[in-house]
Write a structure and sequence with these properties.
Number of strands: 7
Number of helices: 15
Largest sheet: 5 strands, mixed
Distance between the termini: 24 Å
Order of helices and strands: HHHHHHHHHHEHEEHEEHHHEE
Strand content: 5-15%
Radius of gyration: 22 Å
Helix content: 40-55%
């Protein structure tokens, strides 16, 4: 926090202590923010500022990183130190965006002015983009922390795990980050004229699944040279729950990419004389089961062994051997939004997205046949309150 003035530093520390005052967001609470006005804008900015302050304090709690980096004396120590500094700087800079607007009473004076509304929308959009870019850096720090632990003398490892708790147990930090993203997305969507913001009511689920699988197929084809076909079906008529479309899309893309990678791997391993011309199809069915909408992604791939099952939802643990490099592979990246796999954040974030409002993602081997089934459970209870 050395880049802050004393007044700003005091404000950040004060806001970081407001954890008990944060709203417990639910889908229903989000839908109450249904207009672009000064009151709602103030709610959004106050929430963003407080959550950024809390996250900054969580990162600052690992104050002994430099000491451990010197003890480890490796590239992992340098990576960890650099990554945490970058994250702290990102939070400091981003914190100032809502802070300056709140402290100058920018909102209350003529908020009906369209340029002022547009300015605020662009700023919230900027916060969403900046904070979204922090995941890779946080993943780098988490990986370096795991590697460093084995390089530190045994007698210090317990204390290291305590000091590096934010990286050893990253879910609370990532969960908070997702809520910041969602609040920003909701406000930006309202400004664009969508009355329900980031929430989709009575969404066309099959259309959402089709969009996500189209993206997953493009990624698989660009990386593997082939993409399994996908069969999509709805099991019985039902009304879908209110959803965060961007989260559902992300989760379907991730589980479908994994299903495609597993399916193509098994297909590649088949003897030539037994090999079909194309990998087996992937089945996705959408149904309702009591309080949840279920999206099942079924493949006939290599399945889950004990190691893959244990690591499937761990943050920054990837089955991909080579990390994707946006410089070395920029031409192939131009054709698709994302690589097939890289830092190991896709499934873990998908699970956190679903869990936020009472859902889940599960992975299990198929019974009596090869392959695996991923199940996304989406909660119908729009009053389920996310943790802070």
């Amino acid at each position: 926090m050395n880049s802050f003035t004393a007044a700003i530093r005091s404000s950040l520390l004060q806001n970081a202590r407001k954890g008990d005052t944060l709203r417990r967001w639910s889908i229903k609470e989000l839908l109450k923010l249904n207009d672009v006005n000064a009151t709602n804008a103030d709610i959004v900015l106050q929430e963003i500022r407080t959550r950024l302050a809390i996250q900054h304090q969580r990162l600052s709690s690992f104050s002994r990183v430099e000491e451990y980096a010197k003890i480890a004396s490796s590239s992992d120590g340098a990576t960890l130190s650099k990554s945490l500094k970058m994250l702290l700087q990102l939070h400091e800079n981003t914190y100032m965006l809502p802070h300056e607007i709140i402290e100058t009473d920018f909102l209350m004076e003529g908020f009906c002015n369209r340029p002022k509304q547009t300015y605020l929308k662009q700023m919230v959009d900027d916060i969403m983009t900046r904070h979204g870019a922090s995941v890779d850096t946080f993943a780098d720090a988490t990986i370096a922390s795991r590697n460093m632990e084995h390089q530190i003398p045994q007698i210090l490892r317990k204390q290291f795990r305590t000091d590096a708790n934010i990286l050893q147990k990253p879910e609370p930090f990532l969960h908070s980050r997702l809520l910041i993203q969602l609040i920003c997305e909701h406000y930006v969507s309202l400004h664009k004229g969508k009355s329900t913001g980031a929430v989709s009511i009575d969404a066309d689920i099959l259309d959402i699944v089709d969009d996500a699988t189209t993206e997953a197929k493009a990624v698989a084809d660009a990386n593997l040279g082939v993409a399994p076909e996908v069969q999509i079906r709805s099991v019985g008529p039902f009304v879908p729950p209110p959803i965060i479309r961007s989260w559902i899309h992300h989760a379907i893309v991730e589980v479908t990419k994994n299903a495609m990678m597993s399916t193509v791997q098994k297909w590649d391993e088949q003897p030539l004389h037994q090999k079909q011309s194309l990998p087996s199809n992937i089945l996705i069915d959408v149904s309702r089961d009591a309080d949840f909408m279920l999206i099942r992604v079924v493949d006939n791939g290599i399945g889950l062994n004990a190691d893959r099952s244990d690591k499937a939802f761990r943050f920054a643990v990837s089955s991909t051997q080579k990390r994707w490099d946006c410089i070395n592979e920029q031409q192939s990246y131009a054709a698709v939004r994302q690589p097939l796999g890289s830092l190991g954040v896709g499934l873990s974030l998908s699970n956190l997205m679903m869990k936020c409002f009472g859902g889940s993602v599960s992975l299990n081997n198929n019974q009596n046949e090869p392959g695996c089934t991923a199940i996304l459970r989406v909660n119908y209870n729009d009053d389920y309150k996310a943790l802070n």
